[in-house]
Amino acid sequence: MTNQYFATVARGLEEIAAKELEKLGAKNVNPDFTGVYFEGDKALLYKVNIWSRIIFRILVPIHTINSKNAEDLYNNARKIDWSDYIQIDQTFAVNCTGKNQELNHSHFTALQIKNAIVDQQRERYNRRSNIDVKNPDILINAHIYEDQCILSLDSSGDSLHRRGYRPAMGVAPLKESLAAALLEMANWTPDIPFLDPMCGSGILPIEAALKSLNIAPGLSRNRFNFEQWPDFDAALCDQIIDDAIQQQKHELDAPIFGSDQDFEIVQQAIINAKKSDLDHHIKITQVALENIEAPTDHGIIICNPPYGKRLGNSQELGSLYKLLGDVFKQRFKGWTAYVLSGNKELTKKIGLRTSGRIPVYNGSLPCTLLKYELY
């Protein structure tokens, strides 16, 4: 049976996510703002949750109802037979996005839907499900657009970008999904050596290793919310997981390196690599940027230096960017470097001519991924 799904993604990553979905077997893939519509069967739903490196969560639309105001929303939500989706002994929560003139507060909107569900349950069973906003069995997504509300079941639960390997974080870490997207933007493939000379908590090298070893990110999760649904097919899910495990590789095709000058930060990266069982694949070292040397005769560098919006002072960071350009020019001939930055003035200090500029958002910050061919 073919169903329509909606994958939520970070702003600017819609096209990359669409390509990933097509590779996984999705049909009728249609990128939209911060999301991608696609079609597929139940097996694809499970597969995307287990394999996606870019997507946040997969929503399954179940009803579209009129929602001109709070009363309209409540009444129409209560007409839905919620026993098809939520059992009395299951916990649930409602998340809301979007707004219209009357419904302009997401918490209030979610409360109307929650009330409609529990009032229906009380009327039918004289009992009601409990609410669990942190780890619900059933997570309902409501999206208000003009005078309509799209109600969906969230199949993922906790956002898919949380791989489960990152107990230790740097001061301004990249999301795992953005790190994976940057590897795609840089056209990095597992046969090319990889280096992040300012690796922080190690997210870029770890995501590179996961991709290189063909490890499905979802294998590290404790659960997905679709496992709580009435139509959950455990045998099908187990088969997809077994197939994913069988497809893993045991050795890297090319080395992966990460380094940072801060000892404590390097220790965080090592902890994260161990947590992901990749510490014997990735070489993470404490090296100051001015002392770094190219570990191979070619490769790809991706780094995310501080750019003043979150860390440090932009004037003080100018010397760091100049040093970065000098190191690239003097020691990395034959490599291609990519620098993610949200500060145009700072990137001028690198002093090298770019061969490509890709707009990208780091959270809500508009940034650019700058490409440098090093000859």
UniProtKB/TrEMBL annotation:
Residue intervals of the THUMP domain: 44-155
Molecular function terms from GO: RNA binding; rRNA (guanine-N2-)-methyltransferase activity; rRNA (guanine-N7-)-methyltransferase activity
Keywords: Methyltransferase, RNA-binding, Transferase
Any Pfam family: UPF0020
InterPro entries referenced in this protein's UniProt entry, alphabetically: DNA_methylase_N6_adenine_CS, RlmKL-like_Mtase, RlmKL-like_Mtase_CS, RlmL_1st, SAM-dependent_MTases_sf, THUMP_dom
SMART domains in alphabetical order: THUMP
Tagged with keyword Lipid biosynthesis: no
Top-level taxon in the UniProt lineage: Bacteria
Keyword Signal tagged: no
PANTHER family named among the record's database cross-references: RIBOSOMAL RNA LARGE SUBUNIT METHYLTRANSFERASE K/L, RIBOSOMAL RNA LARGE SUBUNIT METHYLTRANSFERASE K_L
Name the record gives this protein: THUMP domain-containing protein
Species this chain originates from: Crocosphaera subtropica (strain ATCC 51142 / BH68)
